[in-house]
């Protein structure tokens, strides 16, 4: 039977970075930063139900045309307008094993990007003009390419500091042999949309962007 001390020793060995006999050390480096979003992607749906599929589609198309006209007529910055999706099929209600045909349901989807501070106003306008389902806003931040470079530089610095701290006595770090990217820096999912003092206000929380790399450094 293994003693508690033996188990602890095994866990310590498993948690250490790779120290290879061939003369290199391999460690991970990570970095993260917070950035406030300046724009948001809104997605809404229009759903209609009718006995005839053509009529269900026609009704959904009519509402979508009104929404597209509304978006294009507003004197507010927007971009990436998309309204090309259509789903059409029968809709049923199931009750105790029995299926009841309700009609044909047509679903149209519209998405657009707006400035972050305009989210509340746009959601209200879209709902008032026929949108039947509103998805949670996806908050975005401009300048992602420049921030990615900074994050990778921070992650590399972190990895080299770890390697330096873990270099065996009597050896020193040599050149970097390999850098592997462990996924692209993306906003973390810890986003929040808080209610402001105005019940109709929407305040986006900060986006958390992270980078993780694996670095192999020669020992000499």
Automatic annotation (TrEMBL):
Transmembrane segments: none annotated. Pfam families: SIMPL (PF04402). Residues 1-20 form the signal peptide. InterPro entries: 26kDa_periplasmic_antigen, SIMPL/DUF541. Keywords: Signal. This is SIMPL domain-containing protein. The lineage of its organism: Bacteria, Pseudomonadati, Pseudomonadota, Gammaproteobacteria, Alteromonadales.
């Amino acid at each position: 039977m293994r003693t508690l001390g033996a188990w602890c020793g095994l866990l310590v060995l498993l948690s250490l970075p790779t120290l290879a006999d061939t003369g290199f050390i391999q460690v991970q480096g990570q970095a993260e930063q917070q950035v406030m979003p300046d724009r948001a992607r809104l997605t809404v749906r229009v759903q209609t139900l009718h006995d005839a599929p053509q009529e269900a589609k026609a009704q959904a198309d009519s509402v979508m045309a009104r929404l597209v006209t509304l978006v294009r007529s507003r004197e507010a910055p927007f971009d990436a307008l998309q309204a090309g999706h259509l789903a059409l099929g029968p809709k049923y209600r199931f009750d105790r094993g029995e299926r009841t045909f309700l009609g044909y349901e047509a679903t149209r989807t519209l998405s657009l990007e707006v400035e972050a501070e305009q989210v509340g106003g746009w959601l209200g306008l879209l709902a008032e003009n026929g949108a039947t389902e509103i998805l949670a806003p996806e908050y975005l931040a401009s300048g992602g390419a420049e921030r990615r470079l900074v994050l990778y530089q921070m992650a590399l610095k972190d990895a080299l500091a770890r390697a330096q701290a873990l270099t065996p006595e009597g050896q020193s770090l040599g050149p970097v042999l390999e850098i592997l990217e462990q996924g692209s820096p993306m906003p973390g999912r810890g986003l929040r949309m808080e209610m402001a003092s105005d019940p109709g206000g929407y305040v986006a929380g900060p986006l958390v962007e992270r980078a993780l790399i694996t670095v192999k450094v020669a020992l000499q």
